[in-house]
Amino acid sequence: xxxxxxxxxxxxxxxxxxxxxxxxxxxxxxxxxxxxxxxxxxxxxxxxxxxxxxxxxxxxxxxxxxxxxxxxxxxxxxxxxxxxxxxxxxxxxxxxxxxxxxxxxxxxxxxxxxxxxxxxxxxxxxxxxxxxxx
Length: 134
Fold this sequence. Notes:
The chain is mainly α. The protein has helices spanning 6-31, 37-60, 68-96, 102-129.
């Protein structure tokens, strides 16, 4: 099973939809609504995860069955990916952008977190939540 096959490209397409919705929500909440780093990213992923579940289940992974395992594995994949990605992104961005203001560091961190989240989430969804049983 190759990592970069048709499933990967479907995941990227679905992710593009989620990215547009989620980025507008997350950066809007942080920059215009004055919400914190963690709150704006958490609300983004809570809202877009619902959309992501259905799009990835039916379009990306073509999973026809429903199971408690699938739903729980999906939710855990999202949670672990979010905590890991944004937990790493914040100190990394602050280190790389040291000397710049908090807003620049946090926005850089939110952007880096999105990228890390996408990679971790793909692996978790592909090999855990929606894995193909042989």
